[in-house]
Fold each of these.
Amino acid sequence: MKESNHIITTENVNFYYGDFKALQDITMGFEKNRVTALIGPSGCGKSTLLRLLNRMNDLIDGTRVEGKVLFEGADIYDPRVDPVDIRRRIGMVFQKPNPFPKSIFKNVAYGPRVNGVCRKRDLDALVEKSLLQASLWNEVKDILDRSAMTLSGGQQQRLCIARALAMKPDVLLMDEPTSALDPVSTAKIEELIEELKKDYTIIIVTHNMQQAARVSDCTGFFYLGRVIEYNRTDLLFTTPEKKQTEDYITGRFG
Amino acid sequence: MTRTLKELFIKNILLLFALVSVIILGLIVLFLFLEGLPVFEVVSVADFLFGLEWYPTYDPPDYGIWPLIVGSLVVTFFAALLAIPLGVLSAVYIAELAPGPVKEIFKPLVELLAGLPSVVLGFFGMAVVAPLLQNTFNLPTGLNIVNASLILAFMAVPTIASITEDALYSVPAEFKEASYALGATKAETIVNVVMPAALSGIATAVMLGMARAIGETMVVLMVAGGAAAVPESIFDPVRPMPASIAAEMGEAPVGSIHYHALFATGIVLFFMTLAFNLAADYISERFRETGSGTL
């Protein structure tokens, strides 16, 4: 992994929920226009790390970060940095589809609207483009005014991806985006990830090791708040260097 | 006793308890109508509702409650004008913005306001607000629409605030997270996501607060001034319906027309609060923007 291609790097990051140390000494780089998967058993800190990268953990009381998280070379935890700016450039898709209880159009237009895009024509174009990118356009183009709540779970999740893409982020963080979906919807989202990595850097947390193997270029294995192994996906899954990684990916624990 | 028999027994006992309040409500309404309707043998419904003169003890008497209806509506309207923003915004502050310790002080204090006996608030209106108004605006009396609206607003604020607060808390955290993750600020998230999602609850809060204000008796009896005339300025005294009923019931001979007229006033009041409650129900259905992601 070449240093120069890293869009986000973490340097000796420790993270605390109150007194509990959830992440220990995380140093890793995330390559631009690649898919990086974070795997590991529940509670290993992979979601915590993901939420650290766009400062979503700020919203939880009593959390504390040590170390540096560099996004394009600048520390996003610098006191002068507004987390709102970071979140505009690093989008996020959650485990459970969470569209707003508004129309499909309003869901996608939400981000651009709060960021000052208000001309109808611009919004229309942006909504269409984002829905096309999320391969949802053909299913919803005639029902844009209908509540997003009427869509199926898989469609809702693609809507959430479209909503994140409408912000034209540089990085897309995905927190187990398919764990609540059926296999067909999962396959669609995986295809989508393949498509999206041309334009975006994607970091995905997943419990599904086949999924990590299928969609990612690099994989990091986490255990008890530490990175145990971080390597190219094909190498990590075929010739793991650490015993713990091997045990986990072969299903001996976790 | 067999298990199914026991089950049946428990179910019916509970049904009985549930029926008690329904039956009592039914009986009260029935009584209200039985005692109120006879007045319409003497005055027509239109003359009763829209008559401008309320002189039930004169000879000949006049039974027009229009000034009382206007009195009730006007104090409720101005109370709403004050109480809605005050109640809703303080709920937003407590639920969304206040840091932990502040929230823990504010929340019980607002609820304590709800526990103040209305006679104490009325007393405050008489002893403090009235002289203040009288001296500041150089009025003949400080017991008037402004005073009553002010005190009623104080009474409605805790109702509005605590129901609004519950509505805000019930907005799923995932909506807020989604909004923050899209780069929305706290203010944008509150205005664009949290408030719309809580709108039906907020509307219910407002309607219940207003129902409370329009039905409130002691405050308007004490501070509204008691003049049964259609007001011309917000500093005029008025005689809202509950005040009229409370003040006159004691001196109206049982079975007299005056007595029936007061019950009929009660019917009108009953329909008004009913309207507020139905409106609350309708609004909470109509503007529903809730639900969460389905799987």
Note: Residues 42-290 of chain B form a domain with the MetI-like fold fold (CATH 1.10.3720.10).
Amino acid sequence: MESLSWSQITVEVLIRFIPVWISLALTFSISIYSKRRTGLYGKLFDSPLGMVGFGIVMFWVFTAIFADLIMTHDPLTQVSGMKNKIPGYPMSSAGKEGVFQHYLLGGDIMARDVFSRVVLGSRVVLIIAPAATAFAFMVGITLGLPAGYYGGRFDTTLSFISNLVLAFPVILLFFLLVTPEIRLAGIEIGNYTWTIPTIMASILFIFPIIFTIILFNSRYFTQPNKRNFLIGFTVLFGGWLYLGLAWDADPLGLISIDPNILIVFVSVVFVNSPTVFRIVRGIVLDIKTRDYVAAGQTRGEGPWYIMLWEILPNARGPLIVDFCLRIGYTTILLGTLGFFGLGLSPESPDWGTTINSGRRLLSIYPHPALVPAFSLMSLVLGLNLLADGLREESLKD
Amino acid sequence: MVKFIIRRVGLMILTTLCLTLLVFFITNLYPNLEKLAKTQLNFRMSDDAVTSYLERNGYLRPTPVGYAQWLGVIPGYVSEPDKEGKITGRCKLPGVTMEDSPKYCGVLQGYWGYSTVFKEPALDILTKRLGLTGWLMLTVMLVMIPAALLLGIFSGMREGSKLDRTLSAFSITSTATPEYVSGIVFIAIFSSSAFGLKWFKGSATSAMDDITWVNFTLPVMTIALYGMGYIARMTRASMAEVMTSQYIRTARLKGVSFTSIVIKHALRNALIAPFTVIMLQFPWLLNGVVIVETIFNYKGFGWVLVQAASNNDIDLLLGCSVIAVIVVLVTQLISDIGYVVLNPRIRIN
């Protein structure tokens, strides 16, 4: 078997991504066709840069979805004779039926396929980063709204705490929270050991539930039946997820999370929440002087109704933009964690860990580190462009 | 103004105390101490031996007491006399009996503890390494700030022009390229021994003694690139805003040349906002420094931080966090004061 030339590699890689190209084409044609009816999302397709950003982001989203179809090899299997091989190198077992004949982007230091690892890595990154950002937003919004709206001592205390977290160098925080000894340290209460990750998870994961309950309660206060149903559902469903995710105590045994991923997730949420809190608080301070807020107060609406259904919808522009930017920032943070070998297992195909394992032989075999590096960069770039496009279009109103 | 500064400094001290207490608590959790005892003596110690070692060296006191001793506001720990009647303590100086050693020994007295990894007093290590990092930071600042300001000014002075689009694309890309990406890309391109250009060195270890163009360019570029985009974008926004203001239009109608408008009229007002951003970049630079010093093996403060954290070197890690937190808080303070001084529209009462 011959090694593939660079043009052959490009063609082969493009072919592997066919499911992604089809989905991208469908998404774009549907979105552009209906762009006058889909509000801010539709307007995105008027801005070329925004469209490029959206395209890159969706490319990685579809890659994460179709990862099983795109991968050419198992990302954890080590194939003998393929260690550090250059891109396009034929498999040592070439000619066998049902096995992809080449390592498209070469082999890494453990003789695994770089291409497949990057593709599967997108799944790890694109699950953790947006979910962690969403959690950070829930925490930031639930605390930032009352802090800005009421002000006073509550605001002072929370602002002080958020400044504390912000004054802490992120890397030091990661090293403190994610080292194995600290993850094991705990206080025993009853027959359950409360480690630092579980304590943090129990505090941080309760916010989405509180947020949803307050949201429904303030909206449907006048329709007790509907309200009770929605809140009951939230408590049951949210509580179920909460037990599984935070305490690993799902009564049905369905929901659980790898403790390695939990601590990474929790520390990323923890680092992001104070910034979101500050942004939300700032916006609320601005918006609460508007006439429609005064009108709501005169009508006798409750404070939470005003915060969640008058102020929050009007703050959505900057929040959506920041959400996109923050997913990118979280991706960088995840990469940093992986780069220092913190949290995720060294086997994990996520980009930070792969970059870290690839950099040791960088000056001789650069491809195992460069491929995930460019992937990470392109995803963050896409998110930044998308945020920029959204900001430009939302300012045009 | 004086009152404002005093209040900010007070808040700063409170923040430092809270954060160091937190770090102290986390680093002194029992599993950490157990590991410390085992690395100090031997790995197959029994649990009893670990407890007695920790007990004897005063690690098992309650956190607030330990923290106060570490800080130096209460007398340092003194052990019970052992079988031979010897006593030891936190403040015991080598070669001196306990009675002749000082009673208080904490951060405030200049005793920052002893590094168990480097076998040196923590303060000595930190001052030496901070000096090295200082050079790196200084060079980064000298490269990054002028470049970022120029980028921002050129793209902000004619918003929407082709030049603006190109430069903005560059700054967006640079904010999307974290240090660990640009660092390895630079190494692959410029220093790889197999196929690269071999212009620069991929390791900055030799720059610790002698900084040269060849060994210092890549680390500096790596940090500067990531920070540059953000400052440039802030400068661009601020410049674009100034360029639409009334007095610029007046100057234009008067017939002042475009270059003169930009340099004489617009720049001064446009640079107020970036100043704050530049100061607030310090905490970011600290992250960048840790990553870059790890990639390029430049043994400065960031490298020490990684070593201390991964080798469970409690005193050194505490020292690192004190310095890191103080750097962040002092720059925040300077940024706030500078903003007030530069911007006459803001008054503090």
Note: Chain A has two domains: 6-120+367-396, 123-328.
